[in-house]
Amino acid sequence: MFYLWSSILNGDETLGGFSRNQLILYYVGVNFINFFVWYAIDWELNSDIHSGELSNILHKPISIQKYYFFRMVGDRMANLFILSPLILMGGIYIIIISKSKISIILVFQFLISLFLATVLWFLFSYIVGSLAFWFENLFFVLLVKEVLVSLLAGYYFPISILPDFWQSILQWLPFQYFSSFPINVLIKGMTGKTWLMNTLLELTWIVGFGVTLSFVSRKGLQKYSDVAG
């Protein structure tokens, strides 16, 4: 993909509002975000539920949601430490080599968007993984989910290259906030009003997913307790 974005445009050509350098930065950026945000909670829940490991987790002095959340945070912090040299090199490239104009406000907006993306991803992934309470094996469901979410989140290509009809639909869905929105904030920038409106929509999805997670988790644990005795 890196070589595709490097060769797809020449000179001053643009695609979906992205220049050649911006497309390269976009692809590198979404990979960083995915490595940092996309923790496989759904896969872990599926495994823990069907292996019986969830019974041990339930005996811990912490709620199951908090257990998986802090487990994700610990893993992401380890990833952040591993990625720190690449982050430094990427920052140097963005500021010096690509001559992108990065302000303190943009960095602040990006960090807020990255944090909210992490929370939104946790809620979404946990809800999907909770389906394992009712289904024997989610292996193929999770595989299909990975492909579809990657597509809708703008991992394979920027959402802005799609026809206006599809963009108008995707802008209301939560998937763009998993990848494309945070990196667009940093690379392309946006007005404070646009960023705020998108952030409010993302917060709405977070609240909605939070309520859904609470309901699904409660019903799922009740079913798990009935089966496990």
Automatic annotation (TrEMBL):
Pfam families: ABC2_membrane_6. The chain crosses the membrane at residues 23-41, 77-97, 104-128, 134-157, 169-189, 195-216. InterPro entries: ABC-2_transporter-like. Keywords: Membrane, Transmembrane, Transmembrane helix. The keyword Transmembrane applies. It comes from the Bacteria. This is ABC transporter permease. It comes from Companilactobacillus alimentarius DSM 20249.
